[in-house]
Amino acid sequence: MTDSIMSKAATMEIPINSNGDTGTLPEDDSLEQAAKLQWSLDQKVGLPRDGRDLQQVMVSGPNLNETSIVSGGYGGTAEGIIPTSSIKGPGVRYNPAFQKRITVTGIGSSMHHSSSSSSITADEATRGVAVEKLEYVKKWGLNTYKCTKQMLSERFGRGSRTVDLELETQIEVLRDTKKKYENLLQLARALTNHFYSMVQTQHALGDTFADLSQKSPELRDEFGYNAETQKLLCKNGETLLGAINFFVSSINTLVNKTMEDTLMTIKMYENARLEFDAYRCDLEELSLGPRDAVAMARIDSAQEQYQVQKDKYERLRSDVTIKLKFLEENKVKVMHKQLLLFHNAISAYFAGNQQQLEQTLKQFNIILRPPGADKPSWLEEQ
Q1: pTM to 2 decimal places
Q2: Contact 65, 85 (CB under 8 A)
Q3: Could you tell me if 67 and 87 are in contact, meaning their C-beta atoms sit under 8 angstroms apart?
Q4: What distance in Å separates the CA atoms of residue 81 and residue 91, rounded to the nearest whole number?
Q5: Which DSSP string corresponds to 309-364?
Q6: Interval 137-189: pLDDT, tens
Q7: How far is Cα 212 from Cα 208, in angstroms, rounded to an integer?
Q8: Which of 19-28, 220-229, 298-307 has the lowest mean pLDDT?
Q9: 66 neighbors 98 (Cβ within 8 angstroms)
C-alpha cells in the first residue's frame, strides 16, 4: 500500500501557467494525507528517521528555480540564458550557485561554437584545393583526349595537319646532321682511346730500352737511341692527345648540348602544332553543327581555346626558326676551328715536326696538363 501511494505521489504533475504561477493543485490534500500516513507507518513499524518527514522532503525537494530556459538552442551564448528566478510565483526560489554554473556552461558552448567555425573554415579551404586539382585534371584529360584523337587521325590519314614545308625540311636536316656528328664523335673517342694505349706502350718501351742500355754494355748505344726515340714519340703523342681531347670535347658540346637544346625546342613546337590542329579540327566540327544557344556557347569556348593554341604554336615556330639559324652559324664556326686544329696536329705529329705540333696547340690556346695533374696530391689524400 505504501509503495502504491509513493508511486502515485512521484508521478504527480505540477502544471505551470503562462506567467510562471503555479495553478491550483487538486491533489495537494492527497499529498498531505500520504505524508501523514507514511509518518504514522514509520512510527508503528519503528523505522529510523533522518529528522525529516516525507512532507518536509517533498517541500524542500527540487524547486522550479533549478531549471533554466535557454534561447538559441545548443551552443548559445550566456546572454540567452533566462534564470527561472525571474519568473515570480509561489514556491519558486533563486539559487545563485546554480545560475553561475549555467553561465559558465554557456561560455563553454560559445567556445565550442568558435572551434566548430574554425574547423569549418579549414574544411572549406581543403575542399577548394581539391576542386581546383579536380578542374586541372579534367582539363588535362580533355586536352590529352583531343591530342590523341588528332594524332591517330593523322596516322591513319583521316585528319588534316598544319605543315610548314621549309621548317620541316630544316628540322629533318638537323636530325640527320646530328646522327652523323654522333658517329664522328664516337670514332674520335675510339681514336683517342687507341692512341692513348699506344702512347702508354711507347712509354713502357722507352723505359725498357733505357734499362737494357745500362745492363748491356755491348748494346748500350743501340738501346740508348731507341729509348730516346720512344720517349720523344711519347712526348709528341701526349701533345697530340691534348689536341684530340680538345676536338672531342668541342664536338661533344656541339652535339649533346647545342643541338640537343634546339631539338628540345623542336619537340615543344611539334606538341604545340598537334594541340593547335586538335583544337582547330574541334572548332571546325562545331561550326558545321547546329547553331542553337548551347552550341553557340560551345563554339565561343572552342574559339577561345583555338586562339590560345594558335598563339602558342606561332610563338614556338618563331623560336625554332631563330634557333635553327643560330645553330647553323655556330656549327660552321666551331667545326671550322676544330677541323683545322685536328688536321694541323695530326700532320705535325706524323711528320715528326715537334715544333709545329706545339705551335698548333698555342694557336688554339690549348694548355696541356702535366703528367699526374689529375691525381690528388699527398696532402689531399691525407
Answers
A1: 0.60
A2: yes
A3: no
A4: 21
A5: HHHHHHHHHHHHHHHHHHHHHHHHHHHHHHHHHHHHHHHHHHHT-HHHHHHHHHHT
A6: 877 787 788 788 778 887 887 778 888 899 999 999 999 999 999 999 999 99
A7: 6
A8: 19-28
A9: yes
